[in-house]
Design a protein that fits this description.
The protein is an alpha/beta fold. It has eleven helices and twelve strands. Bound molecules: nicotinamide-adenine-dinucleotide.
Length: about 325
């Protein structure tokens, strides 16, 4: 597919996405990452010598430095961000500068430099609380309840208002699964590693719903969007599977089947502003997207790795945002 620039290349999603893109012998990938987080650029460390991959250590706030990279690129996939509610809260000015201002400048530069397709990765947590009897679609109301989600909504709007840049928004479900840069601050991964290590899980608000998607399926979703620009340009897609909405209790029960000694400590929470069930029919109907993983197989994947000692120190900063 030619030249693809991926920002946030060294992160959890970036590492999986770039490996998939490089499977196509006609694709060259330029990754951009500040490498300033505790994990460095762990997601791509093992492919730094790949002949069709280059990692540029740069901050996305420095738009001028990105221009020569994106000039004439067939696609830009914009992943770089301060990711997650807790990380987003830590330094709100920096979160806005990275997530909103730098993204807006990158959108302008991509338009001016004739980028073929701009894919912005956003989040289903933009929906905020919703009725648990219905599945929210892409046309559903957005109720961001954190600064992180607010920044994602702002960039979506900015991008969809931009008429001269072919663009797509991908709203990911919460991601799980093993990747070159692992994260243990995401529910499925966190529950699996804590259940394995401690034999007990403390669960806040067992009844709240969320959709989940495996990191490799999330990467495959972007790849599919890039491969079908005639359909995907100008569209917003939830990336996941309608059958993969779970409560925390359901994830606990799946773990209990695998680790029968597991105990639950239940902490009652009456309201979670981020309880939502999501429909993923649009990406399936329009692009033919199917997921290969589900939460049970993802739990097995994390547990199998944990059993062979892959994560001796899951509390380490490089596993968390
Ligand atoms: N992981 C999820 O559950 C999830 C769900 C929905 C959406 N997303 C979105 O997917 C994208 C990737 O998320 P992830 O889980 O891989 O997170 P991550 O934190 O692992 O990766 C983000 C990468 O961006 C880089 N980065 C941060 N600030 C930068 C800056 N100023 N300049 C250059 N690079 C910078 C970081 O070094 C990191 O490698 C994000 O946009 C996120 O909002 C993720």
């Amino acid at each position: 597919m030619g030249k693809v620039v991926v920002t946030g290349a060294g992160g959890y999603v970036g590492g999986s996405l770039i490996r998939r893109l490089l499977d196509d012998p006609d694709t060259e990938v330029v990754g951009v990452d500040s490498c300033a987080m505790a994990h460095g650029a762990e997601g791509v460390r093992e492919i730094l010598q790949h002949p069709r991959f280059t990692l540029v250590r740069e901050d996305v706030r420095n738009t001028d430095a990105l221009v020569p990279l994106i000039k004439g690129a067939d696609a830009v996939v914009h992943l770089a961000a301060i990711v997650g509610d807790p990380a987003g809260r830590r330094d709100p000015d920096t979160t806005r500068a990275v997530n909103i201002d730098a993204s807006a400048a990158l959108i302008d530069a991509s338009r001016d430099n004739k980028v073929g397709h701009f894919v912005f990765v956003s989040t289903c947590s933009n929906y905020g609380v919703s009725d648990s009897n219905t599945l929210v679609t892409e046309d559903g109301e957005l109720n961001p309840v954190s600064l992180y989600a607010e920044t994602k909504v702002a960039v979506e709007k900015r991008l969809l208002d931009e008429k001269e840049l072919p663009a797509t928004v991908c709203r990911f479900a919460t991601v799980y699964g093993v990747a070159p840069r692992m994260r243990f601050d995401l529910t499925v991964n966190q529950f699996a590693i804590e259940a394995f290590r401690d034999g007990v899980l403390e669960i806040y608000g067992e009844q709240f719903w969320r959709p989940y998607v495996h990191v490799d399926d999330a990467a495959a979703g972007i790849q599919l969007v890039l491969s079908k620009p005639d359909v995907s340009v100008g569209r917003v897609y939830n990336v996941g599977n309608s059958g993969e909405n779970y409560t925390k209790r359901m994830i606990f029960d799946l773990l209990k089947e695998r680790l029968p000694e597991l105990e639950g400590k239940w902490v009652n929470v009456d309201e979670d502003p981020r309880s939502y069930k999501v429909s993923f029919e649009r990406i399936r109907d329009e692009l033919g997207y199917e997921t290969a993983w589900d939460v049970p197989s993802g739990l097995d994947q994390v547990l199998d790795q944990a059993r062979v000692g892959a994560f001796p120190d899951p509390e380490a900063g490089r596993f968390r945002n």
